[in-house]
Design goal:
Largest sheet: 2 strands, antiparallel
Structural class: mainly alpha
Radius of gyration: 21 Å
Oligomer: single chain
Number of strands: 2
Strand content: 5-15%
Strand order of the largest sheet: 1-2
Shape: elongated
């Protein structure tokens, strides 16, 4: 059995794909590794000030995932960075910095 050789261009392309995949996985691991959580209070106050959860959901569309994420925030009192980002943007149309202020920029919050 002989091993087929591949062109240098194809080898370079495969290397690029592998590097891109490794970079994507490293970035995803960094996001998932963020252990800190943001308090739900500022988000909940803004949502209530805008007429409540269903009024905010009507801005876009009814979304069961957003409803569940918001109810988890209400029950636990905290949300992960990823969930907080999604809720701020999709429910309120605000950047998370506008919801949590400088806490959004801090690397770690007190537990």
């Amino acid at each position: 059995m002989t091993m087929a050789t591949i062109s240098p261009e194809l080898a370079a392309y495969v290397d690029q794909l592998m590097e891109a995949e490794l970079a994507r996985k490293a970035a995803a691991a960094t996001v998932e590794a963020l252990p800190t959580r943001l308090p739900a209070g500022p988000l909940m106050r803004l949502v209530e000030g805008r007429g409540g959860l269903y009024a905010c959901l009507c801005r876009h569309r009814r979304n069961g995932g957003l409803e569940r994420a918001y109810s988890v925030a209400a029950r636990q009192g905290r949300r992960t960075w990823k969930a907080a980002d999604r809720l701020a943007i999709e429910l309120l149309g605000l950047h998370p910095l506008e919801v949590w202020g400088s806490a959004w920029l801090e690397e770690e919050l007190p537990a």
